[in-house]
Write a structure and sequence with these properties.
heterodimer, A: about 260 residues, alpha/beta, 2 domains, four-stranded antiparallel beta sheet, about 40% helix, globular, B: about 260 residues, mainly alpha, 12 helices, about 0% strand
Chain lengths: ~260, ~260
């Protein structure tokens, strides 16, 4: 058995439930994210990941349950918490008609970043997109756009970062670069990251711990290696498929054998 | 409220106008079309009426310019919000540390800047084209301007709340809402010339005393303080109610999870 994580809890959900027209998209979902930890939230489409992420971002209110970040209730301290957090998603975009530096300057202003020009230049350098500063945001490739979104997400040196499928629609080369940069920045700055992805390679490389959701409920959680071992599957991808189809990590014959 | 957040949000809209100057067409072209049409109608009436009425009829141009203050202020709020929807930027803004009041304040400022551009252009063209000097309203112009702008902000918040509630399908409300009330606020005619059944409704809107006041100033050189007070009072009420409506709708969209659907449509 692994020893309990003693690092500071920076994000915690307790018995979070979210219903839509009587259907539970999240069902008594509880978890803790520690400082410096990367937690993967996995599940098939409709498993509840996006709902969970939206609740955590304050975009959707939970039907019941508690949400705390940095030890404070999220709803009552939303602005203070969001100042210390950031978010990037493959499904949102920065305004396409502005230049990259203009978009980033606006967000640097919103987050109150000191020396914004220098900060933007440093982060763009880090993500190998320094040459894109004067490009029109809407004309960037998917890979460039993802990395610009990541620069925005790192602008305020967040202690908590939520990344929603950051490598979606990226080619393997760019996806690999993005994973490496995320991991590098996360380690250097000891950031807690909540990470969703359908790409199991992402999860194995980036996440310290994962939670599998199915129909809004937690099916299993642990390190990627532990989960693969528990399920007697050959890979995390197999576990994913098994959970998506059966809602469990162990096959019926395996369960019978165990009993 | 954080001034730097407001400044950053305003900067985002200024960048937008700098990057796409075609947007200025909307601020200049349509108001000029209206001005030219009403200007020509005014000239026609002036040529076919006695001297006293000929000078009084210039109120058409005054009404046109003042109506545009209200309309541009409303557009500043509603279109700024839609810009974020169209560019799929709404989520980025709503998950950033931006208070609702900061967001709205930025749209108010954008509304004010939009008015300034349109007002200057229309004032200059109406003077050189039709010998109408908007400054004949003297210092009354200031409270008129202020009241119409505040009412425009309120209508902008109401439009935005309705769009938030019903989604992008309702975005034409961003342009339509001011015109729902236009027939009732006596822009181009006196309240006493309106059908009897509609007159009580006219006094429910803060813009009515302003348009009545404008005609009075053009006719007599002064306006009624009580009318001005009525306008300010109604504006305080509308601004409060519109703000409450906006916050309430925003909370409903959060409760129902509509915000994310709306923002990623």
């Amino acid at each position: 058995m692994s020893s309990p994580d003693t690092r500071e809890v920076i994000l915690e959900a307790r018995e979070l439930t979210r219903e839509f027209d009587g259907v539970k998209a999240l069902d008594r979902f509880s978890f803790k994210l520690h400082r410096g930890e990367v937690l993967g939230l996995l599940g098939a489409n409709g498993a509840g990941k996006t709902t969970a992420m939206n609740c955590l971002l304050g975009l959707t209110l939970p039907t019941s349950g508690e949400l705390n970040a940095f030890g404070m209730p999220l709803q009552a301290n939303r602005i203070e918490i969001l100042r210390r957090a950031n978010f990037s998603s493959a499904y949102t975009a920065l305004p396409g008609n502005l230049l990259v530096w203009q978009n980033l300057s606006v967000f640097a202003g919103i987050y109150g970043v000191p020396n914004p020009k220098q900060k933007i230049a440093e982060l763009m350098e880090l993500l190998e997109i320094a040459h894109l500063q004067k490009r029109v945001t809407g004309q960037l490739s998917a890979g460039e756009s993802t990395r610009v979104n990541l620069v925005k997400a790192f602008l305020n040196d967040p202690e908590l970062l939520m990344l929603d499928e950051p490598t979606a629609s990226l080619d393997p080369d760019i996806a690999d670069k993005v994973r490496k940069v995320v991991r590098k920045v996360q380690r250097e700055r000891n950031i807690g990251i909540l990470y969703t992805s359908h790409n199991m390679r992402d999860i194995e490389e980036v996440c310290d711990r994962v939670i599998f959701l199915h129909k809004g409920k937690i099916v299993c959680e642990g390190t990627p290696a532990d989960i693969v071992a528990q399920s007697s599957s050959s890979s995390l991808e197999d576990v994913f498929i098994k959970i998506a189809r059966d809602g469990e990590i162990v096959d019926e014959p395996e369960k019978e054998k165990a009993s | 409220m954080n001034f730097y957040v407001i400044r950053a949000l305003v900067m985002r809209y200024l960048f937008l106008y700098q990057r796409t100057p075609m947007r200025l067409v909307e601020l200049v072209f349509w108001p000029l079309v209206d001005l030219v049409i009403w200007g020509n109608v005014t000239v026609f009436i002036q040529k076919n009426s006695d001297e006293k009425f000929a000078s009084f009829v210039l109120f058409f141009l005054g009404a046109m310019i003042l109506w545009d203050i209200l309309f541009r202020a409303q557009q500043g709020v509603a279109i700024s919000f839609l810009e974020d929807v169209w560019t799929r930027n709404l989520l980025n803004v709503f998950v950033a540390p931006v208070r609702t009041m900061e967001y709205l304040s930025a749209t108010y400022i954008v509304g004010f800047l939009r008015i300034l551009v349109t007002f200057v252009v229309m004032s200059v063209v109406s003077w050189f084209g039709y010998k109408f000097n908007v400054f004949q309203l003297q210092w009354w112009l200031l409270p008129f301007f202020l009241n119409l702008m505040i009412f425009g902000w309120s209508l902008g918040m109401i439009s935005t709340a309705l769009i938030l509630r019903w989604g992008q399908a309702a975005e034409s409300l961003a342009w339509a809402v001011p015109f729902f009330i236009q027939p009732f606020v006596a822009v181009f005619y006196r309240v006493e010339d309106m059908p009897a059944w509609s007159r009580p409704f006219a006094w429910l809107f803060p813009a009515t005393p302003i348009f009545e006041g404008m005609r009075h100033v053009m006719d007599t050189g002064s306006a009624s303080w009580s009318m001005l007070g009525l306008s300010f009072g109604l504006n305080a009420l509308y601004l409060t109610l519109a703000g409450m409506l906006f916050v309430r709708v925003l909370n409903i969209t959060r409760k129902r999870g509509l915000l994310t659907k709306f923002a990623t449509q």
